[in-house]
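Predict the 3D structure for this chain.
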Amino acid sequence: MKKMIAALFALFLLAGCGGLFQPMPTPDEDTIATQVAAILTTMPTATEDAGLQPTQPLPTIPPTETPLLPTETTEPTQVQPSPTEPPVQPTETPLPTPTATLQPTATIAFTPSPNDPVARLGPASWTDNMDKDNNWPMGSDKFTEISFSDGVMFLTGLTTTDGWRLTWPELTNFYLEMTFQTGNCNTNDRYGMIVRVPESRNPNRGYLAGLTCDGKVSLRRWDATVGAKGEMFNLIPWTAKSAVKAGANQTNRLGLMAIGDRLILYVNGELVGEARDNTFSKGYFGVFVGARDTEKFTIKVDQVRYWENPTP
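Done. Predicted structure below.
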């Protein structure tokens, strides 16, 4: 402080020297004291930190954003039902099963004529005189062999089991007649017609009207879909009839009238029996043969004809 006052005083002295050319009045002590006080007032006041070296400001670190790590979402805990009562599984409400309404089979009331149906039915709806083979499947299979010659069908049985060949069309109510000629035959060799076969490509059901070499007649119902070996049911059991011409090399006309559930048998124009059955209401028809007692028993079929919707 004293050094500063001395310096200031020297300045004034120099200023005074400059007044050699223009003399100035010499200040008194009070004036000098006042000026010194003013100078002292404008000087900065020393503080306690005056001797400390200023420190470098700390670098400002920008705040870093801490990324949030994905956290695994915890599935809500399934609350199990109380063990005191087992949970009830939902059940599907069954829809009512539609049931087919069975249509009653009409039983037509009439008395079968004992006379030959051909004599009163008029011209046939369809006739095959066997002049051609275009109405029948040709060749051999496991059960039968078929061929045509001189206006006749030759049908041979290859096993003791009845085998058949079908033709068309599908018939419902009809009178069907076939003319057969037997060759060499023995007691139980059989032949006849099969009718109302529901499926022509799978002919495993239908009615069989037949004759035997020894003069018996029958009407049977065959259904291969019943049981492991199928079912052959006798509607008319094998019964000897005088209307049948028994023995080898004989000619017989076998006829069946089917109207509704009524199945009426004729042999050579004579009524020989009747049965009622509604298992098969319509279907295809054909010829069958069974070589029961004679190896390769062969029949000749000379004519097949039918009348649709006949008058009983």
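The CA atoms of residues 197 and 206 lie 5 Å apart.
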